[in-house]
Amino acid sequence: MKKFITLVAVGIGFLAFASLASAQIASSLHNLSSGGPNGIKGAVDEICVYCHTPHGGKKAIDPAGDWAPLWNRNYDPTTGGAFTVYNSYTVDAARSNPPTGVSKACLSCHDGTLGLNQLINWPGRGSGAAFVPNPDSSNQIGTVPPGVNNMALIGRDLSDDHPVSMNYADALSYGTGGAIGEDTHAAGFRASAGSGNRWTVVNGTVTLPLYGSSQATAKVECGSCHDPHEARSFAAQSGTGGSVMFLRAANTASALCITCHLK
Ligand code: HEC
Ligand code: HEC
Ligand code: HEC
Ligand code: HEC
Question: By Cβ atoms counted within 10 A, which residue in 11, 73, 80, 124 is the most buried?
Fold first, then answer.
């Protein structure tokens, strides 16, 4: 009997662990399913469908040919107005306009032009209701329902946002260092490392991905700093504070920033 109870206890422990392990995106603000916990919802009771489809998604996020994985959003970044990209007197790397790849994937919701339900492959046979433009602004970022994040609308004006869609290798640092003060500007950026299609910037336990097929063309995109499947961002929404904003690393002591910037 004792053995049986132990087994049951172990079993329950395992189940609890298993459900924790599968929680991930389900307990985050990116669970947009109709049955999900968030204020902003789509019409389908599935989680991945708002971003991915197993078949028939976009080969590329737009005709220019930037890849995003099995993308299920009916997004054309050329409609809905031009983007304004980041600019300053000191920035060096050229920023693509419109933004590229994964950044466009994020912007297919966060620029506020596309309702959550505008999918390419709706569940079921064929493409279903997919191509019916969804005029319902209650499930579009930008019309902010009560209690919902008013910063989630990144919009089309990216001039107040950290630059994206630029070659990391083209980011230079002003000057070569000097005697004034402590900031010598000696070396602005940590070198990227990797091979093939996988380039990263690594500092200790923090690894941030760049997106591109060579070191020279690997880009900083939204996904370099954010992991859209990160579970811990639910904390703010559930009222316990401490949202980590889908960040790939907690930004305590600006650990995220100083992975790339040698400041
Ligand atoms: C809110 C949008 C969104 C949702 C919902 C979403 N994903 Fe993703 N997913 C992305 C984006 C954007 C990328 C590309 C960025 C990157 O490389 O991390 C991605 C990349 C991936 C990748 C390849 C990179 C990796 O992290 O392994 C896999 C696999 C994946 N998603 C699976 C899933 C599954 C399974 C679900 C549902 C449980 C899901 N995603 C839900 C946006 C989403
Ligand atoms: C399918 C639509 C969709 C896509 C694609 C998407 N998001 Fe979101 N995201 C949302 C919604 C909806 C919210 C919740 C907004 C709110 O609370 O008002 C959200 C919230 C967020 C938040 C705030 C989290 C918090 O804790 O407050 C961040 C950060 C974020 N998204 C980043 C990204 C990034 C980066 C990408 C691409 C890698 C991405 N999102 C792709 C729909 C999307
Ligand atoms: C260089 C890193 C970096 C890049 C690139 C980046 N972000 Fe962020 N993002 C952050 C950090 C750090 C925060 C948390 C800010 C805070 O705590 O207020 C954040 C917050 C957010 C938020 C929540 C805003 C809030 O304060 O509630 C959204 C939404 C978001 N990012 C979307 C995006 C999208 C979309 C892109 C690409 C166009 C992007 N981010 C690119 C670092 C980045
Ligand atoms: C994935 C690498 C990466 C991360 C992480 C990152 N940055 Fe950047 N950041 C860059 C690159 C590349 C540029 C473009 C620099 C250039 O070309 O001059 C840039 C540009 C900037 C600029 C504008 C510089 C200018 O000359 O106008 C500021 C400010 C900045 N980052 C601050 C931050 C802060 C704050 C964080 C953390 C929240 C952060 N960055 C995280 C890579 C990164």
Answer: 73
Burial class (CB in 10 A: 0-12, 13-18, 19+), 103: buried
User: Which ligand has the minimum distance to the alpha carbon of residue 237?
Assistant: 2
Residue 142's domain spans which residues? Answer: 43-162
38 occurs within a structural domain? no
Question: Ligand 3 center to residue 29 CA distance, Å?
Answer: 14
pLDDT for 84-141, tens place per residue?
999 998 888 999 999 998 999 999 999 988 888 888 888 887 776 545 555 566 677 8
Of the listed ligands, the closest to the CA of 152 is 3
CA of 93 relative to ligand 1 center, distance in Å: 27
The preferred substitution site among 66, 225, 247 for testing ligand 3, maximizing ligand atoms within 8 Å of CB, is: 225
- Pick the last residue of a domain from 162, 188, 208: 162
